[in-house]
């Protein structure tokens, strides 16, 4: 299959990895609980976009530059951590209560911001690039003439299964958000907690070693 071997083993392993909680999972859950279903879905789609871009980087060798250079790795790591922390601080400073999706749903600008934040959160995590470079080649036939094509096919498959799972998480978490709307004081506490979680993820990413 277009330079791919053991595809079904890859699919099974990929699904298991998708189900394993990680930074993307926490980010989507936090956004969904804090801002509702639409924000969660947009975050999931943003994460998917970032994942597919990582696939392209891995396929054409651009990620190798980052993973082979400590200096470049650290730059991307700190920029990503800083951006994630910025999103968390923004949520901590926000005074408005959680709102359910409906007439007061986010406008076009707000939707673009949520989507952009998710893309950058995933794209600026160098460990995601390292994961793609470490995982995908195990199922690629090195003798295949069009080397980029198997990477893209595998990355697209992994991103698709991951996106389905993330959308399910977003929908489940948004139901929690809708219930929290009834309790305004509790909803504000949850919103601040979600912001603190994202800030914590940013700090964790900045302090994580190159492993």
Structure, described:
The chain has 211 residues and is mainly α. It has one domain (23-207). 77% of the residues lie in helices and 0% in strands. It is built from nine helices and no strands. The protein has helices spanning 7-19, 23-35, 37-59, 62-68, 70-93, 108-123, 126-135, 148-180, 184-207. Helix 1 packs parallel to helix 8 and helix 5 runs antiparallel to helix 6 (108-123). The radius of gyration is 18 Å and the shape is globular. Mean pLDDT is 75; it is low at 97-105.
Write the layout of secondary structure elements.
Blueprint: H1 7-19, H2 23-35, H3 37-59, H4 62-68, H5 70-93, H6 108-123, H7 126-135, H8 148-180, H9 184-207
Helix pairs in contact: 1-8, 2-3, 2-8, 2-9, 3-6, 3-7, 3-8, 4-5, 4-7, 5-6, 5-9
Q: How many helices in DSSP terms?
A: 9
How does the helix and strand content classify structurally?
mainly alpha
Low-confidence stretches are: 97-105
N/C terminus separation: 32 Å
Quick rundown:
The chain contains nine helices and no strands. Helices cover 77% and strands 0% of the residues.
List keywords for this structure.
single chain, 211 residues, mainly alpha, globular
């Amino acid at each position: 299959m277009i330079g791919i071997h053991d595809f079904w083993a890859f699919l099974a392993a990929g699904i298991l990895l998708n189900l394993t909680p990680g930074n993307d999972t926490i980010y989507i859950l936090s956004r969904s609980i804090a801002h509702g279903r639409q924000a969660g879905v947009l975050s999931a789609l943003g994460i998917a976009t970032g994942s597919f871009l990582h696939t392209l980087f891995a396929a054409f060798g651009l990620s190798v530059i980052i993973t082979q250079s400590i200096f470049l790795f650290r730059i991307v790591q700190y920029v990503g951590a800083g951006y994630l922390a910025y999103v968390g601080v923004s949520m901590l400073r926000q005074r408005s209560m959680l709102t359910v999706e409906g007439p007061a749903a986010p406008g076009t600008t707000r939707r673009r911001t949520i989507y952009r934040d998710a893309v950058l959160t995933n794209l600026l995590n160098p460990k995601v690039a390292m994961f793609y470079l470490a995982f995908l080649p195990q199922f690629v036939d090195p003798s295949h003439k069009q080397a980029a094509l198997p990477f893209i096919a595998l990355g697209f498959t992994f991103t698709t299964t991951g996106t389905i799972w993330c959308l399910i998480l977003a929908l489940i978490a948004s139901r929690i958000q809708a219930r929290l709307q009834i309790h305004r004081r509790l909803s504000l506490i949850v919103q601040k907690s979600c912001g603190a979680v994202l800030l914590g993820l940013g700090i964790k990413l900045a302090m994580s070693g190159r492993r």
